[in-house]
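Hi all, long-time lurker, first post. I run a small reading group and we've been trying to get comfortable going from sequence to structure in the token notation. Rather than ask abstract questions, I figured I'd post a concrete chain and ask someone more experienced to write out its structure so we can walk through it together at our next meeting. Sequence below, copied exactly:
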Amino acid sequence: MLKKFLIVNIFFFIFISCFAEEQKIVYLNVDKIMQQSIAGKSIKKQLENFYNKNLEKFKKNDEILKNKEKKIINQKNILSKEDFQKELTGLRKEIINFQKEQVKVRDEMNKMRIGATNKLISKLSPILEEYAKQNSISLILQKKNIVMGKKEIEITDEILSITNKKIKDIKIN
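-- Answer (accepted) --
Happy to help. Here is the structure in token form:
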């Protein structure tokens, strides 16, 4: 009985090891593709433009609020206590609205980044499927999830060149 069990286990492990050798597994650095592909650079540039446009606007608003604050402080002795408090309360409301606007723009930018990244990944998926089919690849893993792997099974540069040929631009909203 023990001999039969041992023989079955040996054949089982031989069969599993043969099956595992037939599987082709590779890995891919998705972050590198997001940063170095033409489409990824396009996304980055669009986000930078959006950020810079809003940064300029926020700097102007910040300067206006600082000038208003100086003006109110200079008028402290001239204005009555009630008028001074009204001016101060108005300024505080403007500052709160300004901060809310900054948070809103930051959230909008994050949504744009996530949306653009998702668009790029959705366009990258068919490229990976086609590449896997053409090269008989069973499994493609992300490099960030791999502790160590042979450099020969990394396909990032190949996928990057294919991506650059097929995906030229991703528009963000």
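A couple of things your group might point at:
The longest helix spans residues 81-134.
The beta strands are 25-28, 139-142.
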